[in-house]
Amino acid sequence: PEACIEHPDAVLQLHKEFVHNGAEVLQATTFWASEERLSGKSDSVNDSACKLAKQAADDGEDILIAGSVSRTDYYKEGRGKERCQEEFKKQLKYYVENDLDFVVAEYFDHTDEAEWAVEVLKTAQKPVMATLCIGPKGDVDGVSPGDCAIRLAKAGANVVGVNCRFGPDNGIETIKLMKAALEKAGVQAYLAIQPYGYHTPDASLTGYIAMAEFPFAVEPRTLTRADCHKYALAAYEAGARYIAGCCGFQPMHIRAVSEALQDKRDGRVAPVTQHYGKWLNCMESQERYKEDDRTKAEYWLSLCAATGRPSNPAISKPVLTEEEQLKESASF
User: Fold this and answer.
1) What is the pLDDT of residues 59-82, one digit of tens each?
2) Residue 320 pLDDT more than 90?
3) Which residues contact 242 (CB under 8 A, 6 or more apart)?
4) 313-332: buried (b, 16+ CB within 10 Å) or exposed (e) per residue?
5) What backbone phi and psi angles, to 5 degrees, belong to 54?
6) Cβ neighbourhood burial of 14 (10 Å; 0-12, 13-18, 19+)
7) Residue 33 and residue 42: Cα distance in Å, rounded?
């Protein structure tokens, strides 16, 4: 987050790239920007982050801006609800002063701390989204995805869901569990999904934390643009209506999501798509590819892409036990 004050032009340009590629929401670069983590810098970072996101939004139409709070070290230290909420309030102040469109509690793995955050964010009188960094097994306290969703919605979140740590397939499975539980309980909330930008079929309790390749060798697992088309459509079918990405997602991935869901969004088209055409246009427009199956969406959506790494296994074994993951989780 310090980049907002150290390299503001770079942050602004990055936001603009996402707008040009179809993002309808920009999240101010406030993750991990609490006073607890950025002592002496938090105020300037949060204020700058909000202003940069709002400036970048001018490059698009009807772009929403959000600011977020995330988990605290105070929670794991046992400092209690009041101390954690004091920390959330410090960041929320800048989201209100800059009149952001909605506020987010993200990357929580303890549902009760996320509930505390939602309680604070509600005081801003703005829509609240709350996402947990959990997979199908639930949070680190053993709370199921369904119960997590119900609790966050009852705490006041308008949108609930998952973000980070797990790839799209794991995230969609988790969203389905949340949806089923919300419907059974008669609790209303929209569903959000912002997965890790890498495939994690072998993820354990805490997602990428236990993967042998994390953090310096995850690139072979990177989502392709075709993967993102499939992800967006599957997430929509699963019931998610806030469909985005977390770590590892690049503007090209968001363009793929945007184009995949174009007919679900009243035909709204990303600026880059307006200029260059949809993803297959580059091949359809060339005579030499006229009879090539690669000009068809069905080809790409059914392709099992090779990695180009003949000696690499498809999956790996976790390097941490679930007990070790619970301890390690507090650090990420």
Assistant:
1) 999 999 999 999 999 999 999 999
2) no
3) 25, 129, 159, 161, 190, 191, 192, 193, 194
4) eeeeebebeeeebbeebeee
5) -65, -40
6) middle
7) 6
Neighbouring-strand partners of residue 138 = 135
CA-closest candidate to residue 169, choices 232, 111, 93:
232
**What residues are paired with 25 via a beta bridge?**
64
pTM flag (> 0.90): yes
- Candidates 190, 165, 45; CA nearest to 104 is 190
What type of residue is 284?
A: E
| Straight-line distance from the first to the last Cα atom of the chain, in angstroms, rounded to the nearest whole number | 16
